Amino acid sequence: MIKKDLEKWLNENKIEEKVEHPSITKFGDYAIRTGKAVENLTKNDIVEKTEFMAGFTNIWLNKSILIEETEKIGTEEWSKNLKENGIGKTMVIDYSAPNIAKPFGIGHLRSTNIGQAIYNIYQILGWKCIGDNHLGDWGTQFGKLIVAIKKWGEKAVEEMTIEDLENLYVKFHSEAEKDEKLDDEAREWFSKLENKDLEATEMWQKCIDISIKEFDKIYGLLGVRIDYALGESFYLDKMDAVVKLMEDKNIIRESEGAKIIEFKTMPPAMAIKSNGTTTYFLRDMATVKYRMETWNPDLIIYEIGADQELHCRQVFETSKMLGWTPQFYNVAHGMIRWKDGKFSTRKGQTIHLSEVIDKAMEEAKKIAPDNDEKKIKAVAIGAIKFNDLNQDPKKDIIFDWEKVMSMEGNSGPYLQYTYARCQSVLSKSQKNAGISGETKLELEEENLLREFYKFEEKIIEAAERFSPAVVAEYLINLARKYNEFYAKFRVIGEEAEEQRLFLTERTASILKLGLTLLGIETMEKM
């Protein structure tokens, strides 16, 4: 990678300041804050020139090196070098995790999209990646659902849809406000479930089967594949061992009949309630234990909502107390908000992801040609995903249909259209793409050439920052530079056709690689 070679050269010249890209292209490819002019730099093949300006030493890279590095992108050699970043390391990422017996809500979209993109980014960097969908398939809500099914269910459980289950759950809460005995019945049924009562267990399992079938449909549409789906119930027989370990380490104590873990800088975490029931926290500790013993990861990432940040900190700190010391990181994503504050929904207050996808498909029909269903789906899903991934995971995002489907702004369709434009140009030429260090380039051509080599850096930076937005922003900048070049210069039939084909082919290749990392499809025509 050029940056590593440059840093090595700077260290040889006793310069250890951070290397950055200038925000304005005309100030070079890299800049370092040196405070004063640096003299007597040793000769280096990758550097064309240096120039001191306003406290920075600006560095321009040799054009031949830029071309050489650009030609490698996407090759076997490039992939092999990229994988050296994570060779021998294992990462577990916990993402998506929708709740059983509820339709896949818009609230789980961010965890699913961001989690899958982080998985893809670490995988291309050579890490062994393990994705785990920690399904919410246990808890007192199942006692309520069983009561609702028995009292108001109008058909056999296996014939119900996920919407039927949600409606029954909502009805339970509505009726429980008028009849307190319903909550007692729900507790009794959940107790039966905990004690492996046959009827309760069968109804619970059928609810899970209905839910998984629905989730798999959504994952298929989103192009998401998660390695494991080990729900909370998987860890029920593994919690006693965690409590024993906590007792052996002397980190758990009794408080008002409950068992808790205390911390110096945050509120205590409850492992066991005063009535003897276990908590989500304890199940998560059993989850960490299982992951450590099964996969022995170097890194565990949780991709869940910002409202779970305290819970994650408690889990991470307790893990350290128990001697589990991988790197832990919580990508705490913000919420999705609508531009006008609301989303018209047929199904009540909860916004179902299927409704958002249906709306996106309607909008995509205005863009995708010939009513091609495959292309309509690719544009719709790409638009939804990119709107999410183009922004800092920690921030709330605004869902504005006009911007989401824009062919000109920071959007998925804009990138897909730029890729299709490149393919259109390439399909019309009979010549071979080619360029050399001696080739004279116009400003827009050179600006584009000087964007390509950054791709590898941006993949690594995205992993370091746990933010696919780094790759998304880079792709937008690349597409913008290509379209500026395309608007000014003809490609086919020009004297400079071969070099412009090279710029076009490299743009297309990087856009496809980058969009694939984000889980977004490309198409040859649009």
Description:
The protein has 526 residues and is α/β, with parallel strands linked by helices. Among the domains are: 2-61, no CATH class; 141-222, no CATH class. It contains 19 helices and 13 strands. The strands form 4 sheets. Strands 1-2-4-3 form a 4-stranded antiparallel beta sheet. A 4-stranded parallel beta sheet has the order 6-5-10-11, with helices on both faces. It is globular. The two termini are 34 Å apart.
Please sum up the structure shown.
With 526 residues, the chain is α/β, with parallel strands linked by helices. The protein has 19 helices and 13 strands. The protein has a four-stranded antiparallel sheet with strand order 1-2-4-3.
Percent of residues in beta strands?
5-15%
Shape: globular
The end-to-end distance, rounded to whole angstroms, is 34 Å
Main sheet attributes: strand count, strand direction, barrel closure:
4 strands, antiparallel
Q: If helices are DSSP runs of H or I spanning 4 or more residues, what is the number of helices?
A: 19
Q: Give a count of the beta strands, DSSP E runs of length 2 or more.
A: 13
EC number: 6.1.1.19
Protein name: Arginine--tRNA ligase
Pfam families: DALR_1, tRNA-synt_1d
GO molecular function: arginine-tRNA ligase activity; ATP binding
